[in-house]
Prior knowledge:
Elements: E1 3-8, E2 25-26, E3 29-30, H1 31-41, E4 46-51, H2 55-62, E5 67-70, H3 77-82, H4 85-88, E6 95-100, H5 108-120, E7 125-131, E8 140-144, E9 147-152, E10 166-175, H6 176-183, H7 199-206, E11 211-215, H8 228-248, E12 260-261, E13 266-267, E14 272-273, E15 278-280, E16 284-285, E17 290-291, E18 296-298, E19 301-302, E20 307-308, E21 311-314, E22 317-318, E23 323-324, E24 328-330, E25 335-336, E26 341-342, E27 346-349, E28 352-353, E29 358-359, E30 363-366, E31 368-370, E32 375-376, E33 381-383, E34 393-395, E35 400-401, E36 406-408, E37 411-413, E38 418-419, E39 424-425, E40 434-435, H9 447-451
Parallel strand pairs: 1-4, 1-6, 4-5, 7-11, 12-15, 13-16, 14-17, 15-18, 16-19, 17-20, 18-21, 19-22, 20-23, 21-24, 22-25, 23-26, 24-27, 25-28, 26-29, 27-30, 28-31, 29-32, 31-34, 32-35, 33-36, 34-37, 35-38, 36-39, 38-40
Antiparallel strand pairs: 2-3, 6-10, 7-10, 8-9
Amino acid sequence: xxxxxxxxxxxxxxxxxxxxxxxxxxxxxxxxxxxxxxxxxxxxxxxxxxxxxxxxxxxxxxxxxxxxxxxxxxxxxxxxxxxxxxxxxxxxxxxxxxxxxxxxxxxxxxxxxxxxxxxxxxxxxxxxxxxxxxxxxxxxxxxxxxxxxxxxxxxxxxxxxxxxxxxxxxxxxxxxxxxxxxxxxxxxxxxxxxxxxxxxxxxxxxxxxxxxxxxxxxxxxxxxxxxxxxxxxxxxxxxxxxxxxxxxxxxxxxxxxxxxxxxxxxxxxxxxxxxxxxxxxxxxxxxxxxxxxxxxxxxxxxxxxxxxxxxxxxxxxxxxxxxxxxxxxxxxxxxxxxxxxxxxxxxxxxxxxxxxxxxxxxxxxxxxxxxxxxxxxxxxxxxxxxxxxxxxxxxxxxxxxxxxxxxxxxxxxxxxxxxxxxxxxxxxxxxxxxxxxxxxxxxxxxxxxxxxxxxxx
Length: 457
């Protein structure tokens, strides 16, 4: 079985933050997660993460999902892989992929195609490379008639070598046995005093073994970030690549300002995404929807012909034909039924809202099961928390909830119930009843004249 070693011990001092560099996020996911997903997409499951600086962040994120090893001193890429030798020896007769945990755009196809070349040519090492316009800062790939002759780091390159535009991505396929053998021979004989993994190419060639390079068709495979500007660039590249993919699939964008869409989001034909909208997680959006402006949608299932305007929705289901917004908050575990209308300044939490129900404005519905064709007036509240426990309200079909009604859970309204405006309902209400709860209205004649005698003219 083939191994993967992901180098994730870097600090990233220029990021000016106290976390490991691979934990900085691109489109809301750590760069390390991008690399892990690329491996999974290539059907590689035997992963070892080499951690170093502030390794507890790596441990907390992975939660034991993969084997990890600690690089206590950061003495170069070769030294990092040395820490994984016990892991490598478990599958010594197969191949090993080495990746950088802060190079998020490595992709599954590049990994698989490089492995095919590696096996077909019986290479000891196959370097994944890219052709770029400006190779500054990257290791140059020096080719020979039979493959590659060496990889020269920027600080060790001659002026002629610096003109080479084929660069090392930092990703390699090795025969595992050859890699373990080479790690015993790598020496820190360079300007940085570090153990370069690139020296494994020299070692393989000196032993008469073959080394070659696979040029990736992905132009961004080499990209990483050394500072916040570089991280912003990665985010912009990823953001626009996803938007362009959705446009190719029939999604409409009249303006891309502020739009961010996660990699796992699925959007149906004919849907329009308006500016300022962020769509995250495993969200699925149906056909012919209008999402935005300024929506935040995370891990939701949205049906066809839904309109969301200034809506934040999390871990909920919104069925076809619903029209929601502006300024609406849909909290987790809610189901909004077909053709529901929700207006401004409404919050729905952990509730089921039946078909064709209307919640016009200024209302909170929490921990409730609401039937079909219910109408909520302005300022209604399901009072679901007594300071200790959360309780549910049940509202039957065809109810009319008058303005400023408080439903004190647990309470049940039968079918077709009316509540009078300003009522506080503390008991179950039978079908088709009118519930009225108001205090006695009293007057004190002349009160305002006495209180405001100095202000009234």
